[in-house]
Amino acid sequence: MIMQFLGKSAQSVFGVCFLALAQAVLAGEYEGQWELKDTSGKTFEIWLHPDGKADGTHNEAMKHGTWTEDGGAAVIHWSTGWTTRIAKDAQGYKKTAFKPGTTPADKPTNSSEAKRIGVPGVESGKK
Length: 127
Hints:
Layout: H1 2-5, H2 8-26, E1 32-37, E2 43-48, E3 53-56, E4 64-70, E5 73-78, E6 83-89, E7 92-98, E8 110-118
Antiparallel strand pairs: 1-2, 1-8, 2-3, 3-4, 4-5, 5-6, 6-7, 7-8
């Protein structure tokens, strides 16, 4: 009914907004593009894909991995042996990192804020 009263350009804008919102909801809690900080405080990005693959820009060695949702958090296992965990907390999202030989049950090697900066099909940058 509402669409009858909107002009064609308004219908297009409405459609694009609805599609972006639907993609964000369907993407789940953790799929998409994230901005994190490493142990030196340097910013890098990761992408958590719907198929369980993960990519990152941290350094040449840490570019590929896999991820799953576990206990309400995204747990990423990198090809380097590092594990990254992203979980929701009172302030937003928090990243914890664990060096090879440790697990998310251990004390983290590093932690920082995690910012979601894109969702599948909407994110800027690499896909």
